[in-house]
Amino acid sequence: MMKMVFAFGIFFSLVIIPDRCLSQDYSKNEILIGLIPEENIFRQMDRYKPLGEYLTKKLKIKTRFTILSRYGDIIDRFMARNLDGAFFGALTAVLAIEKLGVEPIVRIQNIDGTSTAESYIIVRKESGIRDVKGMKGKTIAFVDRATATGFVFAIAYLKEHGIANPLNYFKEYYFTGSHDSALLSVLDGRADIGVAKSTIVKERIRRDPFIENEISIIARSVPLPDVTLCLSKRLDRRLKEEIKEILLTMDKEPEGITVLQKLGASKFITASKEDFVPVYNLLKKADINIRSYSYR
Amino acid sequence: MRFSKSFLICLIFSFILLFVDIGDSSHKKTIGIILPADIPYYEEIHGYVLKKLEEDIASGTIDFIIQKPYPDPIAFSNAARKLIALNVDIILTYGTEATLAVIREKPSQPVLYVAGYSPVLERYRSENITGVEFKTPISSITRYLNTLKEIKTLGVVYNPVEADSVYQLNETMKCCPYFKIRVIKIPVKRTSDLKNLLNETNVDALMFTTSNIANIALSDTQLNIKLPVATLLPRKEAKPIISLYPSPRKQAEKAASIIQKVLKGKKVSEIPRDLSADMELIFNLAEAYKMNLRISVDLLTEATEVIYK
Asked: Which of B102, B136, B109 lies closest to B243 in space, CA to CA?
């Protein structure tokens, strides 16, 4: 009998107690999720706010979004602000997987059925720039060093075309901080070339069809995983599962569909680390080592 | 005594010859400049060009003959003929109309231009002409203007005899239907035309093309325009709410670089025209407030300059 009590005690201490320790997060009264500033932050917050309210209602835990000031801050801010998760872009997700051990949970499927995005290198139609040769000595607007679709693809593309030091190839380069700002830089003539994510460019064209008459896409990347929710390794696994389940099934109910529409999504789909293989390939082509990459 | 007088004259003459030789006039180049009068934007570019050429000016390798004609075709043409007759080494022009006036005179000298409107000048390619060009994205400025308030009618101030201005009017007419805006033409051939035309026209906003005449007309402080104004050339005293134009500093840097190349003996035909995008986007927040218009934060973040007061 004593043996049984002892054995039960050991079992309890090994299994139940650690699980309860882990589930301390589950008793937290707020979940804080970070957003990368991929577009105008006010528009972005308008899109995500209903999702926060929906998760709050379903989880019965207040769920809040916070927009990180810039891409390059995302890893530091994730730790400093003790975030529970973040909707990452392709490169920031890889950085967070490598540096923070976050777990990809779900990915947004866009209205058009895609869950990936391409990187576009865009120019004004009358610019005369058609290829890498034409880019020499021009001004280019990137989004941020910590973006695959707004920076790394362009570097990989130029290296593939024999440009050993891509940044020195341009007269001037600068970082706009968001994809739509990179597009506007080209439209306004503040930059000759822009690098931006296809989904943001398409959305802009949908709202303002004249843009299609003004720009040419001179290069595009392979499809890369679009915005992916990754959750902290500290977060209780049951809570992670619950969040995943809520998001994956929200397209099955009217309230969820309304929230998805406001987000500009058709549904959420399961995400995994394997989704990011094209990003690792792109980094290799750009000669970037993700562990030592100076992305700030 | 007679001998010593002759000797003295010879000595002075030799000294003058020697002095002239030291100056080495054969290496000195004269740049003839046509700078349209009363357009502060071109004056600003010219100031930067001179700054960039400071060393060449100090070393005495270049000299300038500046013509500042009133911006009308006859005055431009006279200025061009004068420079050709003076046999300057290089002709430097500011703006499209001055450049076109020189091209029409078919000079033998190299013609370099600054702030030329690309879609107009591309019809006049020649081995003897190169320069710095720009093309204003008309759709962008229309788009920004349309975010300030719902614009149903846009008055476009242009000059029917200035090719760049006419091109911009046509571009505006092409893009405005996409924004559901109707374009009202406001043709200004003389600066005095503007006030009368504005009194007769009922529009929601005004766009001033790069027309020299329209630009000068806009400087009239008596106009008292109560509408949102967008300009494709800066005119600070007119306080436009939005301006989109090529950076004067960058235009000047490129122009000075081209001048230096020509001075060093490079053929003009070997120097490609420069059509880089270096636009400046200016929002005048103070004026917008006065008109009860709101410029959103995301628009302000796109600006290269925001005027607060």
From this structure: B136
Average pLDDT over residues A55-76: 85
The answer to whether residue B13 neighbours chain A at the CB level (below 8 Å) is no
pLDDT of residue A25: 47
Q: What's the whole-model pTM score?
A: 0.80
CATH topology agreement for domains B24-135+247-278 and B138-246+280-307: yes
Interface ipTM above 0.90: no
pLDDT tens digits, one per residue of A227-266: 999 999 999 999 999 999 999 999 999 999 999 999 999 9
Dihedral, CA of residue B99, residue B105, residue B111 and residue B116, to nearest 10: 10
| Res B18: pLDDT | 45
- Domain residues for A201? 121-221
Whether residue A249 is found in the same domain as residue A109: yes
Q: What is the CATH number of domain B24-135+247-278?
A: 3.40.50.2300
pLDDT band at B220 (very low <50, low <70, confident <90, very high): confident
Do A131 and A259 lie in one domain? The reply is no
Taking residues A73-82, report their average pLDDT.
Answer: 83
Q: Which residue has the higher pLDDT, B134 or A22?
A: B134
Is A10 in the same domain as A103? yes
Residues A110 and A52 in one domain: yes
CA distance linking residue B90 with residue B83, whole number of Å: 9
Tell me which chain B residues have a C-beta less than 8 angstroms from the C-beta of A210.
Answer: 139, 143, 175, 178-179
Q: What is the CATH number of domain B138-246+280-307?
A: 3.40.50.2300
Pairwise CB contact (< 8 Å): B275 & A127 = yes
- Residues 6 or more apart whose CB falls under 8 angstroms from that of A112 comprise none
Q: Beta partners for A110?
A: A265
What is the token pair recorded at A163? Answer: 């440009």
- Measured in angstroms, the CA of A129 and the nearest CA of chain B are apart by 11
> What does the alpha-carbon distance between residue B165 and residue B180 come to, in Å, rounded to a whole number?
22
pLDDT of residue B91: 97
Which of B123, B173, B298 should be substituted to probe chain A, the one whose Cβ sees the most A Cβ atoms within 10 Å?
A: B298
Q: Which residue ranges make up each domain of chain B?
A: 24-135+247-278, 138-246+280-307
